[in-house]
Design brief:
This protein is of the alpha+beta class and 204 residues long. The chain has 2 domains: 88 residues, Phosphorylase Kinase, domain 1 (2-Layer Sandwich), CATH 3.30.200.20; 103 residues, no CATH class. The chain is 45% helix and 14% strand. The protein contains 6 helices and 5 strands, in the order H-E-E-E-H-E-E-H-H-H-H. Strands 1-2-3-5-4 form a 5-stranded antiparallel sheet, sandwiched between helices. The relative contact order is 0.13.
């Protein structure tokens, strides 16, 4: 794996790295590495799911072309199992929150993050080819129900909080019907987490 990453890296930069270190996985089967060479730093991703890689690369390139704050994809291997991105940093908004607590600075960083999220959803929709989506192309009834059931399984059931199960399911059905009848005007980013927001100084 590292030899294949090295070949792609050398093809991009024309030189070998000083250090390569594995980054803890955050979700899925993707394996991440941070590559350092002098003052330069890159992120390498290895993933056997080529279809997932194609989708990610398309979305990343599209968002970057709109001037949105996402890392630029710099190189992709011929088999599309490896790609290199610019390294935007290692300090997440969650890191800052855990270090500083609920300070005014943290509050302002969250505000900036939410504004950036809105820009991503509005500008990101412009010219986006939704046929490139990996699974659902629209946030329809089944997708809404799936997200609502996460709340049931991972919050209510985990806490063993007493509730009327049938009434809850009826509410879920009603809510999913209402939302699926809404107009879809923008791109929906469903995985907003503070651990995925990178902070540099007072910027996100």
């Amino acid at each position: 794996m590292q030899e294949s990453i090295k070949q792609l890296y050398v093809s991009l930069t024309g030189k070998s790295w000083d250090v390569i270190e594995k980054i803890p996985q955050s979700g899925g089967d993707r394996i991440y590495f941070r590559i350092k060479q002098g003052a330069d730093s890159y992120i390498a991703t290895f993933n056997l799911n080529v279809k997932e890689n194609e989708t990610f690369i398309y979305f990343a390139q599209h968002f970057h072309s709109k001037g949105l704050p996402v890392p630029k994809v710099l190189a992709v291997s011929a088999d599309q199992k490896i790609y290199l991105q610019e390294d935007v940093g290692a300090t997440s908004l969650l890191d800052v929150l855990e270090q500083e607590g609920k300070t005014e600075r943290v509050y302002q960083l969250f505000q900036k993050s939410l504004k950036a999220l809105v820009q991503l959803q509005v500008k990101g929709d412009q010219g986006l080819d939704y046929s490139k989506c990996l699974t659902s192309k629209t946030f329809g009834k089944h997708a809404v129900l799936t997200d609502l059931l996460y709340y049931k399984y991972y919050f209510l059931d985990t806490l063993q909080y007493p509730y009327d199960k049938q009434a809850l399911i009826d509410e879920f059905e009603l809510l999913s019907d209402q939302l699926s009848d809404s107009h879809f005007n923008y791109f929906m980013f469903r995985d907003f987490q503070s651990r995925n927001i990178i902070v540099k100084g007072d910027e996100v």
